[in-house]
Structures are given as C-alpha cells and as structure tokens.
From TrEMBL:
PANTHER family documented for this protein: ATP-DEPENDENT 6-PHOSPHOFRUCTOKINASE (PTHR13697:SF4), PHOSPHOFRUCTOKINASE (PTHR13697)
HAMAP family in the record: Phosphofructokinase_I_E (MF_03184)
Protein name per its UniProtKB record: ATP-dependent 6-phosphofructokinase
Residue numbers binding substrate: 220-222, 257, 264-266, 321, 349, 355-358
Binding site for ATP: 10, 126-127, 156-159
Length: 825
C-alpha cells in the first residue's frame, strides 16, 4: 500500500508526531510512505513532473548477504536525512529539491527528531480550491498519478469534513478522470468499455484506485470534534493557557486586580472550561452553556462580588472566543472588563492569548497520543475494505478508538447546529461525559453559596496525603474541600499522614484557604510513608476523637496499603466502619488496576522537558548516547511512556529486566544505527532506564559499556533525573483530572455514607465495597473494592500485574527500528 499523510487547517502541536508515526508505522507494515505538503492545497497542486525514479538503495558497509531480500526495508530505514523542511525554506527533503513538488516520498530518517517540534513541518493551509469539485478532481488525479491508495488526514473538523466529501466523491472523480470530457460514468466510451483518448488515467489505474482509503486524525487545539475525548494539540494549548494564568495570578493578587482572558474556541468551550478548572478561575463563558441569568452581567457580578467578600484579592474570568449570551449575542472580553470596572470597581485588564496558544513544543500527551493514533490509522487503512467505513481515530479515556468519520463529522456539526438553534442543553448532551463533568465540577468548586444537605446527612470528611508528593494532590484536596463546604459538610485536613494524625495535626479547611492550591506542586497537607499499622488502635481512636464520617486518602502505593490495613482492621475497630477512599496519586503510576495516577502526567512532562534539553546537548558536539535514569521504583511506567514521548532508542524497565543477550543486541543496534547516520552531523540518542531495572547492570555500567563499545562511532554519558520528576507545577491534565476524580470520590463517599446511616449506630457495619479505590480503566472510571485490588497486585514489587502500558516497550523500540536493525545486521 502507498500511504500519504497531510496536515490541514490550523496547525497544532503533535501534528509532526502524527506524520512520524504514520511514516514509520507504514514502513514497518511494508508500505511506501508519502507526505503531502501544505495540506489539501498540496494535493490539488501535486507534482509538476512525475516523481523521479527512486535513488538506488545505498550500500551498507556491514550489510551481510542474507539481507538482500530485505533491501527495501533497509532502504527505507536509511532514506532521507531528517531535515525535511526543518531549514524553513520548505524546499528540500533528504537533499532532494522539492520545488514544484507537493507529494513527496519519504523514508524512515526523514521524520527523525520531529517530536519536539511544534506546528507542522510539512506545512498546512486552508485551501479554497479543494472546496471546489475541480480542485478535488485535480487532487484525485495527483494521488492516482503517484499510485497512492490511502490517505491520512490530520486536521480539524473542517479538514475531516473535506476528507469525508473527498471519500464520498471518489468513485465519481475516478470515473470523470477516466473520461476527461466530464461525462463520468455516463460516458459512452466507458459504458462500451473502449478507451477514451483524452482520459487522464488508464482503465488499469481506475480499477486499481476504485476506492480511496481514508483515515482521519483530529489535529485541532480547540478540542471541538465529537466522539473523541481529546484532539491532538489541545493538551499543549491548555498547557500554554495555564502557564499564562499562573503568571497572571501572581500579578493579579499583588495588585488585587481582575483579569479577563480570551482563549481560542469558536464553537467549543473546552479550552476555556479546562483552563477555568485547572487555572482556578472565578467565572467562565463557553458557547455551549451561556450564563443562565438574563441579564448575565448580574449573575457574573454577584458571583465575583461574593468571592471578593470572603477576601479574594484576584479575579480571573475566562472567555472562549465564540462565547455568547442565550440570544447568541457575542460576549467580548472588553465588554466584560467594562462591566467589572463599572459595576464592581475592579481594576480590570484584558489579556488575549491568541496564537501563543498554538505554539511551542508539544507536551508529553501530544507526543504519545498522536503516535498511538497515527499507528492505529495505519492499521485501519491496512484493514480497510470497500465495505468498511472511513474511520476517525479518537480516544475515550485511555482507549484509542475508531469511529466512522461520517458520524463524527455529523455529530460535530450537530453541536454547532444545536448552539445555533439555542438548544444549549442538547449541545451539552452531545459533548463527551468528561466535558459535562468538568463543567459541573467547575460550577461546584467556584461557587460559594451553600446548598446544605439536612443536618442528619452532614459529614466530617478527613483528607490525607500519603507517600511522595505528586502533581494534582493539592488540586484534588481543594476540590474535595470546596465540595464539602458547598453541601454543608466539614472538610478536615490531616497533616503529615498517619503520624500527623497521631500527633493531632488536624484542622478544618476553609474555602479561601485552599483557593490558590490548584497550581501548587508538592503537598500542602504534608505527606509521609507511615502506614496506619504503626499503631492501628491509636489511629482508630483518633478517628473516633475527631468523629470522622469518611476518609479520602490521596497518594500512591502506601495509600492503597493503608486502605487495605484499615479495611481489614474493621474487624476490630468500629471507627473504620465509614467510607474509606483512595484516590491514586503517584509519579510512578504503580497503583494496581488504574491506568493513571495523579502526578504521572506532570512527571512525564518533566521528563520530556529534561530529555529534550539532554538530547540537544548530546547532538551539539559529537555523537553521544545519553543513558537517562528515571524514578519509578519497581514500575517502569514513566520510563516506558517517557521513551515513547521522547523517541528514545532503548528503554529498560524492572518488568522486563536487563540481560546480557539484550545488552549485546542493543550495543549492536546502536553501532549499526550510528553507521547508517549521515556522515558529518552529530546525533544524540537517548536510552531511558528505570532506577530499579537491574541491580547488576546499573546506569553506570550501561553507560560505560556503551562508551567502550561505541569506539569512534559514539560517546556515552549518563544523567539521573531523580526528584526533578516530581515536577514543579502540576500539569493541567493532572489538575483537571484531580478535580474530576476528587469530586467523584466525594459523590461516592456521600452515597456510601447514606447507606451506612440507614443502619443503627451501634451495629453499623460497612460493606467491603465502601473501602475502595477510584480507577481509570480503559474507557471508563470504575470503583474497585480494595480487597478486589489485591488479586491484581504484585504486593512484593509494589505494582500492578499486567499493566496496560507494558507492550509499549516493544513499540518504542520498533519506532526507532531496533528490532529490524538488531536482527538483520
Ligand atoms: P481548525 O480547527 O484549526 O480551524 P479545520 O480543519 O477545521 O482546522 P478549516 O479551515 O475549516 O480548518 O478546513 C481546512 C481545509 O479543509 C479547508 O481549507 C478546505 O480545504 C478543507 N475543507 C473544509 N471543509 C470542506 C468541505 N466541506 N469540502 C471540501 N473541503 C473542505
């Protein structure tokens, strides 16, 4: 199969990772891979001349004879020089001129080092010509001329609509090309199976290209596509926005100012909403849910006035660029500023973030998601038949999905239509559950007015951090505390874990006291690793002393172990017959069953930032392999995902271990890889190693081994990332996830408490399921009773059995060609 990939519409971070994944994934499946420059415009323009014949495969000094049959693969592995468009001229690729050529054959190394680049290196455009039938006819002709039969389109809803139109029209375009007079299938010549002398394609070409296979990937910073939780580029844009809010927060608080921030999102309020949740904003405006009150100015001013009355010194209002009132009248930042200034007397400033939201290096998620989705797009194309629909590759929670492109496009359009028809509830119902939950969460935690439950139902909820600090712990605590206060419950902070509890380090949390916690790293409550078993009886008596009605523990494996101890302790201590809940938070992501813990995204981003800098330094002077050691205990999650996000050449994890045979193959691979590099340019490569991958082959040993074996080909150094992986400021994903999961924990606690309260106090008996862990499992969020977790835990190594990310190690190494090179050379 010949696969071409193009990027279209507004650029977004992660598009380069898509191209890399499609190219490398395609080559690994034996396909020929092409890129189309400048989006659909490049497809329409095509190549001025037919593609030049491929250059002869280069010879390899150490190519043994038995690889002759696989010369194509090796040719692909060597083809190109990783400089495609990187020089900014847009005019050459792998030393070949691109003037007048928009559809270009690419190889393995053409996409080398693309991960850290923002935007799209193959160019994007908004093509008016492609919107016309003539433009699409030219596009079809250009694809057929190059023999391309499959197309991956990465762009926003417009681009995917274009892809859908193109796919639907394809048979008629082919028929038309076969009879250039334009009569298509009605052509007499075609009907009589005779040759048309003015046809643009041959009958063989028409037969071979009767169907165009298309897969769509959503590259859009707005996250405006239905049937997928996230679009490529949206997480990075959210990073940029949160960085801006964090910076603005300090100046706003210093001067007691209000700031009105306009963010992107014409038809979708995702960026504004998630920025509101993770930036701790006071008020947001999104297209799907305009303010309920008419006039809305009263609602906003009352809301912000209350915040000021409790002592807030800063106000942040976020507006999506497509925000409007219930009559669809646009709400603009300057007007909001005037209202805040005139009515509340606030010193108000407007900040429009504009294109800064698009820019910059992709965050970890915008490297991993496009890689997995790009590979899935190749799979979908390989499996496509004339009867299967064209797919859009999406994601639901943690599951890469395929949904029919037509349906996704139609549903996306129906959200815009619902807004247009002022059917805002319908628009909300068409958004994914995470969107709706995030909005409910924002409303709950930003509101001050109470909606107290009856006194008999009120709870005293203890909140505790356990284990090492992890990004999102504070945001989760803030959300839990605010939820409690809204419904008349009492949120109680237990400082420094169980030791703190035994020392009576306990105090009530207030609405204002937790206000700035969203963006804070570390643990505001203080944390340690002591388990309740240090003195279970004394812990139980403290539970009684403070009349805890429920406990929320935010932490890693220690929190899970503590939960287990207390659940088992229920046999002896009635004080533990309350809802006991664990919200996983650890950079190691080693809590069993759950796909993600809070903090794991922050630490991945810290790793990606560090590795980008290390790789730059490694490439600066001479060929150098950097062995980067990560934390993670006996769990290789962060090493594996970090390797996937940075394009590392090798990854070593405790789950797979390190053996002599592996090391020997890895050294051969590395040597081969450096031999195949273009001469004269230094190249840095990463090896990511978990701290506990092997007791014998330590980071130092491996570094020395690569240095010794590298000889004249490459040098080797090591770097240990250590505690830097805990990250300074939590990532927006961790903050938003913290809020969402924390509020789910509170709802669970409330339900379990309600069930318990139905029993007489003296004989109150909590069921095992009331001691549970909140988990993300593939596409859903599930509660797992702690006793059920045990079966899926490797208690000795403090990690889960069979985690979802384990197979990704092979993927990491496939994407750098290790298995192919190591086995063949
Ligand atoms: P963004 O979300 O950044 O705006 P987008 O993909 O939605 O990205 P658009 O400008 O709407 O951006 O679309 C990109 C290109 O897709 C258009 O310039 C056009 O070439 C093509 N396209 C969009 N809609 C159609 C359509 N209905 N028919 C044919 N082509 C289309």
């Amino acid at each position: 199969m010949k696969i071409a990939v193009l990027t279209s519409g507004g650029d977004s971070a992660g598009m380069n990772a898509v191209v890399r994944a499609v190219v490398r994934g395609g080559i690994l499946k034996g396909c020929e891979t092409w890129v189309v420059r400048e989006g659909y415009e490049g497809l329409v323009r095509g190549n001025l001349e037919a593609s030049t014949p491929e250059p002869a495969p280069p010879t390899f000094p150490d190519l043994p004879p038995e690889t002759d049959g696989d010369v194509n693969l090796l040719h692909n592995l060597r083809f190109g020089d990783g400089q495609l468009l990187k020089d900014g001229t847009g005019d050459y690729i792998g030393g070949r001129t691109l003037k007048g050529r928009y559809i270009v054959r690419v190889g393995w190394d053409d996409v080398k080092g693309w991960f850290s680049e923002g935007g799209t290196l193959i160019g994007s455009a908004r093509s008016k010509t492609f919107r016309t039938p003539e433009g699409r006819l030219a596009a079809a002709h250009n694809l057929i001329k190059e023999g391309i039969d499959a197309l991956v389109v990465c762009g926003g809803d417009g681009s995917l609509t274009g892809a859908d139109v193109f796919r639907a029209e394809w048979p008629s375009l082919v028929a038309q090309l076969l009879s250039e007079c334009g009569s298509g299938s009605k052509c007499d010549l075609i009907a009589s199976s005779r040759l048309c002398w003015i046809a643009k394609i041959t009958r063989e070409q028409a037969t071979a290209h009767a169907h165009l296979k298309i897969a769509g990937l959503v590259g859009s910073i707005d996250n405006d596509m239905s049937m997928t939780d996230l679009t490529i580029g949206a997480p990075t844009a959210l990073h940029r926005i949160c960085e801006a809010i964090d910076n603005i927060n300090s100046t706003a608080a210093s001067h007691s100012r209000a700031f009105v921030l306009e963010v992107m999102g014409r038809h979708c309020g995702w960026l504004a909403l998630l920025a509101g949740v993770s930036g701790g904003a006071d008020f947001i405006f999104i297209p799907e849910r305009p303010p309920a009150a008419d006039p809305w100015e009263d609602e906003m001013c009352e809301h912000i006035q209350r915040h000021r009355e409790v002592g807030k010194r800063k106000t942040i209002v976020i507006i999506a660029e497509g925000a409007h009132d219930r009559n669809l009248k646009p709400i603009k930042a300057d007007y909001v500023k005037d209202v805040l200034t005139d009515r509340l007397g606030l010193d108000t400033r407007v900040t429009t973030l504009g294109h800064t939201q698009r820019g910059g290096s992709p965050c970890a998620f915008d490297r991993i998601l496009p890689t997995l989705q790009g590979l899935e797009a190749v799979n979908a194309l390989m499996e496509a038949t004339p009867d299967t629909p064209s797919y859009m590759i999406g994601i639901q929670e943690n599951k890469i999905t395929r949904v029919p492109l037509v349906e996704a496009v139609a549903m996306t359009r129906s959200v815009a239509d619902a807004i247009e028809a002022k059917q805002f509830d319908k628009a909300m119902s068409l958004r994914d559950p995470e969107f709706r939950e995030s909005l409910d969460g924002f409303m709950t935690i930003s509101a001050i007015q109470q909606q107290p439950v009856p006194a008999s139902k009120r709870m005293r909820v203890a909140i505790m951090h356990m284990g090492a600090p992890a990004g999102g712990m504070n945001a989760a605590t803030r959300a839990a505390a605010r939820w409690c206060l809204r419904y008349g419950h009492t949120p109680i902070a237990v400082h420094n874990g169980f030791r703190g509890l035994l020392d009576d380090q306990v105090h009530e949390l207030s609405w204002l006291g937790v206000d700035s916690w969203t963006s804070r790293g570390g643990s505001e409550l203080g944390t340690n690793r002591s388990l309740p078993s240090v003195d279970l009886g004394a812990v139980a008596s403290k539970f009684q002393k403070y009349s805890f009605s429920a406990l929320l523990m935010i932490g890693g494996f220690e929190a899970f172990s503590s939960l287990l101890i207390m659940e088992e302790g229920r046999k002896h201590y009635p004080a533990f017959h309350i809802p006991l809940v664990h919200l996983p938070a650890t950079i190691s992501n080693n809590v069993p069953v759950t796909d993600f813990s809070l903090g794991s995204d922050t630490s991945l981003n810290a790793l990606v930032d560090a590795c980008d800098a290390i790789k730059q330094s490694a490439s600066a002077s001479r060929n150098r392999v950097f062995v980067v050691e990560t934390q993670g205990g006996k769990c290789g999650y962060i090493a594996t995902l970090g390797a996937l996000a940075t394009g590392a050449s090798l990854v070593y994890t405790p789950e797979h271990g390190i053996g002599l045979d592996t090391l020997r193959r890895d050294v051969r691979f590395m040597k081969t890889r450096y031999k195949l590099d273009e001469k004269g340019r230094a190249e840095g490569r990463l090896v990511i190693k978990n701290e506990a991958a092997s007791e014998v082959y330590t980071t130092d040993v491996i570094t020395k081994m690569f240095k010794e074996e590298g000889g004249n080909l490459f040098d080797s150094r090591s770097a240990s990332l250590g505690h830097t992986l805990q990250g300074g400021v939590p990532s927006p994903t961790d903050r938003a996830r913290a809020v969402r999961l924390s509020l789910k924990c509170m709802t669970f606690i409330e339900q379990q408490h309600g069930t318990l309260m139905k029993q007489p106090q003296k004989t109150r008996h909590a069921l095992p399921e009331s001691a549970a862990v909140i988990t993300i499992q593939s596409s859903s969020i599930e509660w797992v009773p702690v006793q059920d977790m045990v079966a899926q835990s490797d208690m000795k190594n403090r990690r889960g059995k069979d985690p979802w990310w384990l197979p990704l190690k092979d993927l990491v190494e496939s994407l750098v060609g290790r298995p192919q090179l190591a086995a063949k050379l």
